[in-house]
Amino acid sequence: MTADGFRKYLLAGVVTWVVVDYTTAFNPDVQRWLDHMPLIWVFYVGYPLVFAHLIYNRGWSDRSIFLAMIAGGFFVEIVCSNNSLLYTYPIMLIMIPVALAIYGVVTFIPKWVVEGELKARWRTTAFLLAVYIVVAVLNYFNKAGAL
Length: 147
Prior knowledge:
By secondary structure, the protein is mainly α. The protein contains six helices and no strands. Helix 1 (2-26) packs antiparallel against helix 5 (92-114) and helix 3 packs antiparallel against helix 4.
């Protein structure tokens, strides 16, 4: 399942990234999202590509993947996006766990789907998706009010 899992994870990861990033960072401002094209596709394809490699070619454990997820999230959010919510006290106390949950969605849910573990991990999946949905809804109403 290594090559097949790699391809499936990559596809699921890219789709998940597009949906999650658009709904948590850009929705409903389609033009602002389009303004970041095509560079934003580096994240949409690059992040799942790295994790597909770590999971299916290198055989990393979930713990190692989690640590890599933290590093990847730090790189994307702090280095590339300069997301001040993750380093401004006191909001960072809330936003760091929220960011970990969102990165859990884009990192682990595609893995669990590909490996058929979604049902076995339904509690974690439900929690991660609940956090994601709250953030997406809050983002939508926050951005819609600003338009």
